[in-house]
From TrEMBL:
Kinase is among the record's keywords: yes
Keyword Transferase (UniProt): yes
Occurrences of domain Histidine kinase/HSP90-like ATPase (ranges): 22-129
Secretion signal, residue range per the UniProt entry: none
Xref: Gene3D superfamilies: Histidine kinase-like ATPase, C-terminal domain (3.30.565.10)
Organism: Streptomyces tabacisoli
Record-linked SUPFAM superfamilies: ATPase domain of HSP90 chaperone/DNA topoisomerase II/histidine kinase
Highest taxon of source: Bacteria
Descriptive protein name: ATP-binding protein
Alphabetical UniProt keywords: ATP-binding, Kinase, Nucleotide-binding, Serine/threonine-protein kinase, Transferase
Amino acid sequence: MADSSLRAVGWARSLPISSGVKAARDWTRSHIEDLEWSRSAPDTVDSVLLTVSELVTNTHIHARSTAQLVLAWDGECLHVTVHDNSPQMPRPRESDEEATGGRGLLLIDALADTWQAHECPRGKDVTACFRPDISGR
């Protein structure tokens, strides 16, 4: 007999470089609304949207590739995955206070509960996981 208590929800979207990061944020926000976090976990929503912006920007700028954005909610954690065609794994960069970039991975590290990168046959996946803070803090 199958376990009927397990319920996963997922969405996927391809974002070519021409689509821009705003399209990724808007699309993500519309699906997070299905989880009803806007009132119960607004800080988590902000963290997810900022992370999506960073990951899609990195894909478009550094990998020069279409971003494959996947959101998967497993009942405990929202997994935000962005796939690109570059085999180069992400790594934090040293940046001085005057630099206009180079802080994206540090930001994701601060916002997400966890994040990791995996090599794939045609590129890599970067996944950040978020557990909603529904305490209202």
